[in-house]
Amino acid sequence: MNELIYKGCKIPSELYYDIENQVWYKLEPDGTVRVGATDIGQTRAGRMVNVRIKPPGKHVPKGKPIASLESGKWTGPIPAVIEGQVVERNEALFDTPDLINDDPYGKGWIARLKPTNLEMDLKDLVTGEEAIRRMKEYIDREGVECKSS
After folding, report:
1. pLDDT value of position 130
2. Low-confidence stretches of the chain (pLDDT beneath 70)
3. What are the two backbone dihedrals, phi and then psi, of residue 69, each rounded to the nearest 5 degrees?
4. Domain regions of the chain by residue span
5. How far apart are CA 68 and CA 132, in angstroms?
6. Residue 30 to residue 98: CA distance in whole angstroms
7. Cα distances (Å, whole numbers) of residue 123 to 15, 60, 149
8. CATH 2.40.50.100 applies to domain 12-131
9. Structure pTM?
10. Burial group, residue 121, by CB count within 10 angstroms (0-12, 13-18, 19+)
11. Quick check: 23 and 64 in contact, CB under 8 A?
């Protein structure tokens, strides 16, 4: 995984990002899309204590939550920019929700979706150099400092 580290925050360049909600999307070889919280998002939220994730088979409309996360200082949704059906959720998060904090782009992934209209939905996300530029702007604007692991 190619990544930039900026102010301690990891930004993998090959992922697609919803910058304002700090959610990442990874296109999988089987046509599904893996979803998770960014390093910046988990840093701002704090240590996760509870996770609720839509079950497999559930359709998630664009803009509606795939999951909700709870930390000691924050509770909020992980909204879907990519509409689709949940095909898998990360069951490990129910026992160890702070995997999101410890490994947001790896073991801390949240769910996998079978997209309904991937090509159209990807237009609402950024990737590559554009994503890195916008993530750096977000980090500076919000005053975020991540802890490198």
Report:
1. 95
2. 1, 148-149
3. -115, 150
4. 12-131
5. 25
6. 27
7. 13, 18, 32
8. yes
9. 0.95
10. buried
11. no
Q: Which residues contact 133 (CB under 8 A, 6 or more apart)?
A: none
Q: Residue 18 in contact with residue 125, Cβ under 8 Å? A: yes
Which pLDDT does position 21 carry in this prediction? 96
pLDDT in the model for residue 1? 60
Amino acid symbol at 138 = Y
Paired strand residues for 50: 70
Tokens 């998060």: give the residue: 93
The string over 104-119, giving b where at least 16 C-beta atoms fall within 10 Å of a residue's C-beta and e elsewhere, is bbeebbbbbbbbeebe
**For residue 13, which amino acid is it?**
S
Residue 58: which of 31, 38, 85 has the closest Cα? 85
